[in-house]
Structure formats: C-alpha cells, structure tokens
C-alpha cells in the first residue's frame, strides 16, 4: 500500500509545473506525435503484493478528440502462493490503445482509454522443483486519465486502467490464477 501512495506524491511534485503551464498562453500541444518515459504501479487481483514498473510510450494526437498510444513496459515480479505452489511472474507487455479526449480546455485534457496488449510472461516457480518458463498471453484494458500540457511540446499524463489478463488454460500458468488487476500510470510526453 505504501508503494501505491508514491504515485500521488509524484503527481503532487509535478502539479506545480502543470499549473504554471496552464497559466501560460502557449501551453496547448500543437504537434501531434510524441514519445516519452512512463512509470506506474500494477497489482493483480491474486498477487500477494503489487509492483512498480517502467517503460516507454508514444502517442499520436489525431485531432482534438482522438488519439492512439503504443507502449512497451517491464513489470517486475509479482509473487503468488496458490495451492501450496509458490511462483513469481514478470511481464513484458506491448500494448496499443485508443484514446478519446474530452476537449475541456487547451490546458486540461481528460480522456478515456481502451486497448489490447500482448504480454510476454515469465514464470519462476519455487518449491520442490525450481523452474523458469514463459508464454505469451493476450489481454485488454479500459480506463481513464488526464493529460496536462507543460508547454506546446511537453505534457504530463496520469491514468488508471483495469487490466483484463487471464492466461490460456493450456499454458504454463497455475490453474485459477487471476492476473486481472489495477494499473496506475504516470508519463511525460515530449511532442515533436
């Protein structure tokens, strides 16, 4: 839970920059393609603890309402103890999302997000036999967020997504393991 409190702290640190940018007349994003780093927190429903993750994102604004996003991330290990078997998962997701912005003002852009992802999953089993295995799983996400322009070429974004990710029953994962969960993300977009 303490880890989860760090994201609002990060938002609190960067909020003065966003407020300062909003008082500036040139705070609107004029260019349409951006790239930048992102970090976040993911907690699966069945995981013992959540973990921070990092990655990179790119966004293309297709007008004032529509946008698309692509991202690559690394989710560090989450531990599971199910049926006497202990294992850890690591994810490397590659996701694509559609963004629908609400044109509230030039300096404040809330949005809805929906997308798909391919999740390269690494399993490290502990116990009687230590083993490492991996698989690809597909999932989707739904959520909402806000983009706050800093100036005409940079913006902060914060969002929440609910991840729907259930592995194939024929694959490596332990039966009845639920990887669905909450994802909180903060990113910095540098528009070209």
Structural commentary:
- Keywords: Signal.
- This is Outer membrane protein beta-barrel domain-containing protein.
- InterPro entries: Beta-barrel_OMP, OMP/PagP_B-barrel.
- With 192 residues, the protein is mainly β.
- It has a single domain, classed as Porin (Beta Barrel).
- Helices cover 9% and strands 61% of the residues.
- The chain contains one helix and eight strands.
- An eight-stranded antiparallel beta barrel has the order 1-2-3-4-5-6-7-8.
Summary keywords:
192 residues; mainly beta; Porin; 8-stranded antiparallel barrel; 1 helix; 9% helix; 61% strand; elongated; disordered N terminus
**Domains counted in the coordinates: how many?**
1
Q: Specify the structural class.
A: mainly beta
- What is the percent of helical residues? under 10%
The whole-number mean of residue pLDDT values reads: 79
Distance between the termini: 37 Å
List the total number of helices: 1
Could you please say which CATH topology applies here?
Porin
Tally the beta strands.
8
Task: Quote the beta fraction.
Answer: over 45%
Q: Stretches where pLDDT falls below 50 for ≥5 residues?
A: 1-7, 9-27
Top CATH class: Mainly Beta
Q: Could you state the oligomeric state of the chains shown?
A: single chain
Strand order of the largest sheet: 1-2-3-4-5-6-7-8
Give a quick account of the main beta sheet: strands, pairing sense, barrel closure. Answer: 8 strands, antiparallel, barrel
Radius of gyration: 18 Å
InterPro entries: Beta-barrel_OMP, OMP/PagP_B-barrel
Domain Outer membrane protein beta-barrel: 14-189
Keywords: Signal
Protein name: Outer membrane protein beta-barrel domain-containing protein
